[in-house]
Structure prediction request, 617 residues.
Amino acid sequence: MRDLVERAQGGDREAFGALVGLISDRMYGLAARILRDNDLAEDALQGALISTWRQLPALRDPDRFEGWVRKVLVHACYAEARRRRSWAANVRVLPVDGPAGADDLVSIDDRDQLDRAFRRLSVEQRAVFVLHHHEGRPLVEIADTLGIPAGTARSRLHYATRVLRAAIEADGDPLATEGRLA
Amino acid sequence: MTHERDFDRIARAWLAAGPDEAPDRAVAAVLAAIETTPQVRRPWRWPLWRQIHMTPRTFGLVGALVMALLVASSITLRSPHEIARPTSSPSGVPTEIYASLIDVWAGAPRTLTGVPTSAIVRATFREGNRLDISGESISPLGVQSKVEIMNSDRLTLTTFTRNSRCQEGAVGTYQYLLSPAKKRLTLTLVSDPCADRVAAVEGDWVRTECTTGPGLAGGDWDCYGNLEAGTYKSRAVNLRFDISHGEVAPITYGALTFTVPDGWSHVADNATRFWLMPSDQYPRVHDGVPLDGLYVFGHPRAASTAAGCPFEAQPGIGITPNDIMTFLASAPGLKLTTPQPITINGHTGLSADIQLAPDWKNTCDWHDGSPIAPILYANTGLSSVAMGTRERLILLDIGHGDAVGIEIFNADASRWDEYVAGAMPIVESFVFAEP
Prediction:
């Protein structure tokens, strides 16, 4: 990948196209999970990749390309979410597509509760939660990616976890929940 | 209680059930966009300047150098959109005529041999007299040609690469016609031995001066931007697709034909949304403040009146214009005029003007805390009215089980009469394509 990044930094559009092919699926998945909206995720992905192309000559360490794109993408997600709030009309929020019954661990009720609770989180809290639970990134790396103190990343994750846990516990019978997961 | 480890498993499983493949059209749009997007290159690192001790003499030298660089960069770093846009009609000088073409132009869908139809097609006239045509299935190199202006209405296109759909050296001749404000270009075949170039080049093109960007436009940089008076076809909006199934709406060229006077801008046009606004407000589109707009979208529903204004339809309300208007007339927070019958392009519906009820205090979770009330939930999301704003809502049955919502949104209700008088002729010009 380093070779492609260096060529793209020199203005090679073909090399950048190859990089887009390597990372676009992962980045789209990340944006879709943070925004819970396929259209907004598409917007964020496009904005982030075009911004990445424009700013690429300024990237000092080509080996950090993917992390750098991730950072640009998360900020693009922030922008999408804020624009959504600020529009007077025609704000789009759509359910994220996914294979039905992808994992029996999560009941339909849990999914609904998690979906609703997740939408109540700030986009900053969502980003930390997704980077941690979906991408498996440690908090220190998340803090570095997002340009925030590690303590802030920790508190965002803590708050998001508390809200989502409460959502799936509040609705059901605690004993039944316990039993199902045992 | 749910154990921590169990919660982690549930969270991971829940997150795993999301998409893992970027839509092809999104990737194609990025690749097409970078074809015309310059990279930002800084000649040196600014922090170095902080280390230089600035004597009056060096200060003067540095000042002169900075001025020289600013002048040089203003010449060399301009984007295609800023290059050589003449303010008067092109002269008969070929270089000046070509300069007036340099830009990205949007065209109707094209089908080239052996590849699927491309719905989003761009013609890019570049510096150095080069023309590229690109689309989802059309490589910019496919019919890349050298352009030569022959006279005031003829140009030739010559293939200059071997990796082309046309034979190297093949020359095509086309008649070109620029509209008075140079917003529109028509290329008509005179002769060309390369059939794929004919398919790619011939037809009407609209200059894209889109400053909205994918963030707001939702898909690409291909909104038309400021419009010259005339009739245009929509670029992508799909008014007959019901996105409630969770699928991605396919884009559709020409679902809506519209006629505008001078002074309007085409701001966004993607699969789920079509958006015009007065040109004097278009430069503020990124300011995040309410602006006047004219929106068109498919499959409107009455928005949920639940607390917080969730992005949901109100349960139990029908989907006909009458069902929705009847509900909105008594919906909390809204003050409607009596819905009036309206017919546009032969399609019947209802029209009503909407304001926030003066005593309404509630807000929405996603708003800034000031009073606001939702109106519609549609493929494009939630529409709403806040204090001091006003809108005309038109709901039309366009046949085949499809309905459209049209919102003439006015950010400053004190200008209502003037604004709506200017917008209604555009709405009355709408022609909805049959499926």
About this structure: Chain A has two domains: 1-94, 103-182.
